[in-house]
From TrEMBL:
Organism: Microbacterium galbinum
Pfam families: Helicase_C_3
Superkingdom of origin organism: Bacteria
Protein name stated in the entry: Helicase-associated domain-containing protein
Keywords for this protein: ATP-binding, Helicase, Hydrolase, Nucleotide-binding
Ranges where the record places region Disordered: 105-126
Domain spans labelled Helicase XPB/Ssl2 N-terminal: 305-427
InterPro entries xref list: XPB/Ssl2_N
GO MF assignments: helicase activity
Amino acid sequence: MSTHARPLADRLAAAGDDDLTRLFAARGVRADPGWHDFFDAAEALLDPSSLAKALPRLTSDEAAALLRADGTGDAGDQREALDALALLTADGSTWPELATALEGRPAPAPLDASAPHPSDPAASAHAAERAFTTVAVLADLLMITRDAPFSLLAGGTVSAAEKRQLAEAGIAVDLVDALVSIAVDAKLATAAERRLRVTADGDGWLRSSASDRWTRLATSFRDVLPRGVRTPSGGWIATDAWIDAHPWDPAWPDRSRALRETARLLGLVAGDGSEPAWATPLREGAPADTSALSVLLPAEVDRIFLQNDLTAIAPGPLAPALDVRLRTIAARESAAQASSYRFTAESIAHAFVVGESEQGILDFLGGISLTGIPQPLAYLIAQTAQRHGLVRVSTDDETGRTRIESDDRHLIDAMAVDQSLRPLGLTAHVASLTTKVGRDTVYWALTDARYPATLIGADGAPLIGDRHPPRTASAPATATVDYAPLIARLRSRQGPDADAAWLDRELEAAVRARAVVRVTVGMPDGSTRDLLLEATGLGGGRLRGRDRAADVERTLPVSSIRSATIVAP
């Protein structure tokens, strides 16, 4: 038992609930550590293993101040931060239990406080191109995720198999994990049920301009940077100094390199380490200013060329809102300064599934086309519209079963014998098919099998099918830890006589360890007497032990013991 747990327990008991919550979160305390009172909490926080886990969390300034306090008792301007981590005693020195944990810890190198060198025009142009590419590729990743969320490994990274599929879609394998991290940090995507899903914010982000897209990503990146690289103004220190920001964290060098690479991908640092003009306000903690970046980005276009071969050509980066809608109607074949799209029966059928109509498609394409709507494309849209809705999927009000109906008897017969639909357990019923499987599952199974299915609501009106609706972004992992029950439990055990409670703990620990304990006993005449006992038992309000000096067994009333100190285990 730590001899310094008592003063720390008193400090914890006197602290407010908010201060305790911040302390427990900063020290990585579980929500249910099994502590009974503040004495348990103090002992756990002073345990060498707990202290060793706390040290890697320290910033460079905090680590240097802790070493200074260990020798002089003066932590300087970091006193408050170290106090908040329960690493200092009341007089500002370190706990003796920290001595072992601090052994061999190197003194942190001073961080470079100088501002980064401004980028020259060539470096700025390259950084802008990199930022534009990252934003565009991330948009492609979210578009793919929106239609077909892909699975994540336990650590939140993407599996090799999924990366190969993304590579076929034109996304570089080595960028996938970084892009997923950027999207999650910006709350554009979230990990739900071990799958990456687009959030409502992500769906809106896809339709915003390139500069607005970049602003969201860069600001979010700054907001989630670790403490060690943040400045009091809310910005960050020079990226060259990031590697020294958490000197006692063995995992920090790799993480700092990953963060710096993310900064490079977002165009916040140029390839030569210099700083583009648009990164400066963010580094200083100010709102983003994209004026210098915007002049270097390719101009967006709002018109396309529709061709007789059922393709569309955008003569430049298509405005995001137009691009998102066009890609619900056509499959994009290539992405560059000039992108190409191809219309197929499947792509147009997909547009009807997500709520488009024949007239809506024609009006949209006619409004952005510089060449009108070619006859082959108009025919394909009309033909697909005629087939859409031939198969109706609804719920039978009487039986609760899913019903599949169609005016085309051949389609009913085809579905009844389709081997890909066998898991649905379809049965014939009065010129229709029924199943116990849910309506939405049946609808998407038919859609995947390329049947022109439509969802029908209880009122008989068609419904819009959204297979993967936007999700709400998950809260950060640290925010999910609720310390309120723990704090309430600790306070409920906070009795009025802390001295007596602490004495009982000391005596119990001495008996468990068969330790030699020095006790101060109050005598009837008001004097006190010190005894050196080898503690052997505690019960019925009495302490039993062998008196080392007199070599006799003694039994002392606990109520007469004024203090107890373990001399030797």
